[in-house]
Amino acid sequence: MQIADQPDRKRFEAVVDGQLAGWAEYQLTDELMVFTHTEVDPAYEGQGVGGALARAALDEVRARGLRALVVCPFITAWIGRHREYADLLYGARPSSVTD
User: What whole-number distance in Å separates Cα of residue 6 and Cα of residue 25?
Assistant: First the structure.
């Protein structure tokens, strides 16, 4: 599976064996990446595509030094299961975790 940001489409895309398997749509501001919708093709459901999209997108938020404003129910639920990403949420206190 390959995940790539497609800024011209304003979404991260997951490609499996050359086929578009899913995407996570966003809007970008100077300070925020706003996640609005995530969709996985039914043929790829249950194969970790949505989770891979969420992880890659949030890793990009962290790499860019942005915050995430999440209105997408899937990414909201995913962060609930992966609390190590909660510090990226808009309005969250900065993480005190150090490497």
Answer: 10
The predicted pLDDT at position 69 comes to: 96
Block means of pLDDT (10 residues each) for the chain, length 99 residues?
97 97 97 97 96 98 96 96 95 59
* Residue among 28, 31, 26 nearest 11 (CA): 26
Q: Are 53 and 22 in contact (CB under 8 A)?
A: yes
As given in the structure block, the two tokens for residue 15 are 């490609």
CA 39 vs CA 42, 69, 76, 94: distances in Å: 9, 18, 14, 29
> Can you tell me the distance from the alpha carbon of 28 to that of 53, in angstroms, rounded to the nearest whole number?
17
pTM: 0.89
Cα–Cα distance, 93 to 17 (Å, whole number): 40
CA distance 97 to 34: 24
What residues form DSSP beta bridges with 22?
14, 40
- Start-end of H helices in 41-83: 49-64, 73-81
